Amino acid sequence: MPRPRIRHLALYARRPEELVRFYGDHFGMETLATDKDGNYFLHDGYLTLALLKIDMGGEAPAGMNHFGFHVADIAGTCKKLAHEDVEPPQRRTSPRPYAEYRAIDPEGNWFDLSEHGYGVD
Questions:
Q1: Which one, of 17, 38, 86, 51, lies nearest residue 113 by Cα?
Q2: How far is 87 from 2, CA to CA, in rounded Å?
Q3: 67 - beta bridge partners?
């Protein structure tokens, strides 16, 4: 089985549309998708970058929100994680085009698991 790869990063952003311009102009990233909440999903042909619009009334700071692994076998990955002292991965409650499961590491960092990938292969 191939090694899992980090293929997705998600950042909270105050002005995600400005980051779309910035990463497009300077790094050639292209918009893969947008949604009604003002979130943007960019890609560079390998990595997907989610720019999640901050709700200024919320408590989340700008910056890293989560990252995601592309895995060959979600069931096998979840089974291996069951032996760790962490909450078991959970199926995402809302439909996401890029991740089927959400998990948490021993330090409390969120990460996604996707068997089908992140929109570009």
A1: 86
A2: 25
A3: 9, 111
- Residue for token pair 């990595």: 47
User: Considering Cα of 44, then 49, then 50, then 56, what sign does the dihedral take?
Assistant: negative
Type of residue numbered 28? G
Predicted structure pTM score? 0.73
Going by the DSSP 8-state scheme, the letter that residue 69 receives in this structure is E
Residue type, 1: M
Rounded Cα distance between 6 and 25, Å, is 24
Tell which residue, 39, 57, 56, has the closest CA to residue 48: 39
Count the residues in the chain.
Answer: 121
Which pLDDT tens digits describe the chain residue by residue (121 residues)? Answer: 588 888 889 998 888 999 999 899 877 899 999 999 999 999 988 889 999 998 766 677 778 888 888 888 989 999 988 888 888 999 887 766 668 898 888 778 888 888 877 665 5
Q: Are 50 and 8 in contact (CB under 8 A)?
A: yes
